[in-house]
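Fold this: LacI family DNA-binding transcriptional regulator
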Amino acid sequence: MPRRKKVTLRELAADLGLTVHTVSKALRGLPGMSGETREAVFLRARELGYRTKAQEAGLTAERLPWVAGPPRRFGMFLDGTLDFHRHQLEGAQKRLNELGCALHPLLVPPELSGEAALEQWLAANGVPYMDGIFLTATLPEWMEQPLLALPMPKVLLNYPPAAALVDSVIWDVEHAVYQSMEALHRNGHRSVLYVGDKGPHRGFRLRWQAFLDAAERLDMTVAGDTGTALHRGRDQTRWLQELGEQLASGTFTCVLSAIPDTATWVYMAATSRRLSVPEDFSLVSIENAAVPHLPDLSRPILFQRETGERAAELMLRRIANPLLPYEHVRLRGPFHEGETLRIIRAPDVVGGMNGA
């Protein structure tokens, strides 16, 4: 692959229609411009292949092969068409395309069952001839073991299985739960209802355990049946009815909606009982992205596209340095304290919703 001509700072500034001074400040993280301008500078610099000396030094320190080399071909296994899969794919493609490498989505058929069928499907999609594969979080756990055993570099975009020797990166949902519980506690809440499935994915189970740990550490009461935790089953109507009954029970002041795409259902169940958020109970939801019809939802910020980018970096690092120790990277973001979280008085904490 031909080496790309090096772009100068002056050329980058001219391309953006900004001064050299502004572009330099943006790339060094200095104040003095809008967030939109700073993001535009970063994105265009990456597109043109411009890097500061500090960035070059950082890449060298991480042992990443950010130099011209042979084009490589990778695959990302996806189970379904969830939005966060698209963001992960875009992030990884962005990083890999900068070096002329290709990343292909591999949508796993829902009817695929058994290792023999998996092996045939892998061969039909040319996976044995790829330079490496990325495994996302919602793949069936039965499928992970044979995929992790493939003789090629792998990066898991998930929490790794116990004793697995594989590089992995994930947005830290355990940290997100702790952030959520601390925000509720900080605003005076002491009794919380957990809405979320405890399975079948590792991330779901880790959320639940983090919730119980945080509740014990913060001395918060767990409302409802801790043995089941409210979650959506096959009978959606019945689930909404049970959720509505819990929301109307008055045994808590706040709800932690722990599984993405569940906040909307909490609102629906509350509306069916003529309850309002945050007047009747506060709501914090762990969502993969902002919810368009709930624009100021209180939630921890989860980095999805950045997870894909970091996964690409781990892949390139592994290819260039196959004997380095395996890494598990957790990305942590800030907490957005929106309008669905209110401060309550001490009597509210003791008496339940609305101070009753």
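The radius of gyration is 23 Å. The chain is about 40% helix and 15% strand.
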